[in-house]
Amino acid sequence: MIASIKRTTFHRDVYEPAEDSFALVDALVAHQQTWQHSPPRLCLEVGSGSGYVITSLGLLLQQLGMAVQLLATDINQQAAAATAATLAAHGVWRADVVLCDLASALLPAIEGLVDVLVFNPPYVPTPDDEVASGGLAAAWAGGARGRRVIDRLLPLVPRLLSARGEMFMVAVHENDPAELMREMEAAGFEARVALQRKADEEQLTILHFKRQQPHFPAKRPKMLSV
Predict the structure, then answer these.
(1) For residues 134 and 184, is the Cβ–Cβ distance under 8 A?
(2) Where do runs of H (alpha helix) occur along 96-197?
(3) What averages of pLDDT result for each successive group of 10 residues across the chain (226 residues)?
(4) What gap in Å lies between CA 162 and CA 42, rounded to an integer?
(5) Is 142 exposed, middle or buried (0-12, 13-18, 19+ CB in 10 A)?
C-alpha cells in the first residue's frame, strides 16, 4: 500500500506528485522486503513537497509491522503544511514536519541517526538566480546542471546517516548520475542504480547509496608447534 493521490494535498504552490515521485516510490517498494531483515528506526525526506513520498514510505513500513519515526523537511511553508495534511489523511501519525532548508534545523540533533533518507531534489537545469526564488520554483529549479541543491545536500549525508543508513535519490541525465555515484563512493558509500525510467523528455534515475560495511580479513589458523 502506498499513498493515494486523492488523499494527497497539493495546489499551485506545492509540487504535485509526478513521474519522478512515482519512480522514487517504486524504488522504495522494490526495496521493502530488505527492511524486514534490518528494520529502520528513523526515516527522513528532505524536500517533501506534497508528502506523497514520505507518506508512502511510512505506509510501506507500517505494512511490515514497524513503528518507525518519520521526519520531513521543506523550505516552502505551504509544502510543509501539505505534507502534514497528507500524512494525517493516511493515518500516518509517527511523523514530524519541519520547515527548514535541507536538514539545517535537524543537525546536530539527528546526526548519525537516519536509517533511510529520501530526496527528490530540484534537478532541472536553470539559471542560478532561480534556485533561491522561493515558492513552487524551489521544488524544481536546480541551477547549473541541476546540481546546486544536490551538491549542498550530499556533503551532509555522511553526517545524517546511521552506520547502516541508506539514501534513495532522484537524478536526471543532466545531473550526471555517474559522477554523483563516484562522489559518494569516494565518501565511503556503496552506490548503485536502483531504477531507471523514461518520462516524457527526462531520463529518470533513482540512485541508492549505502554506507560501506567494513570487511574483516579471515583469521589464519594458528600453526601448532610440536
Answers:
(1) no
(2) 150-153, 157-160, 177-186
(3) 95 91 98 94 98 98 95 96 98 97 96 98 87 73 91 97 98 97 97 94 94 65 54
(4) 9
(5) buried
Q: Strand 42-46 relative to strand 95-99: parallel, antiparallel, unpaired? A: unpaired
Grid cell for residue 62: 507500517
CA quadruple 55, 5, 49, 16: dihedral, nearest 10: 160
Q: List, in order of start, the domains of the chain with CATH numbers.
A: 5-211 (3.40.50.150)
What pLDDT was estimated at residue 224? 54
Cell numbers representing residue 142 in the block? 536546480
Distance of alpha carbon 143 from alpha carbon 130, whole angstroms: 7
Closest CA to 52 of 84, 78, 30: 84
pLDDT at 134: 65
pTM of the model: 0.91
DSSP code of 41? S
**What residues form DSSP beta bridges with 43?**
70, 116
pLDDT at 212: 86
How buried is 26 (Cβ within 10 angstroms: 0-12 exposed, 13-18 middle, 19+ buried)?
middle
